[in-house]
Write a structure and sequence with these properties.
The protein is of the alpha+beta class and 181 residues long. It is built from 4 helices and 8 strands, in the order E-H-H-E-E-E-E-E-E-E-H-H. The protein has a 5-stranded antiparallel β-sheet. Strand 6 and strand 7 form a beta hairpin.
Length: 181
Amino acid sequence: MTKYQFDISKPYILNRSKAKSYFWFYVAVFALLGGLLSSEFSMIGIILSVVFTFIGINGRKKKNKIMRIDKQGITPFGENTILWQQINRCFYQTTPATRAWNVKFYLKIVLKNSDPVFICLNDYSYDDKKLVVAINFYSGRKLFGQTKQGQKNELKEILMSLVVWIGISALIILLLTLAQK
């Protein structure tokens, strides 16, 4: 008998994460403490704490748009269900970020007609292993994962971006050494 990491009698549900709003509340507390304890930072700290609290409250008030995975298919944001018969592959994809803290994780669904559907997973609290098991279980086949060609293309993109960053870094170092002479 196969053991699953979730209750298979119910659909697998991904809820919106509230972690970002807690982060803004913590930043607001530190800004308020900095404003109260520092004489030169007092007004700015208090104003920033109000702004960060407002951002945190707005994050908490967002509607809980769930993503549902069941026997029929994947239903993102309570919209139309993408049926399992329409899906060719599913896999995780990240976007190259300009900042390390701004990486976006997507669930990429490739349909039979080769149209991709992207679902941003950053706003959800989920366990990636449970998500993979749920997709493979409810679809009735091993649907999750990239093809070999897709993995090769992703590796080429990563290597090209690494080469570009090394080139830009070398150019900056060269310009700095020339400016010092």
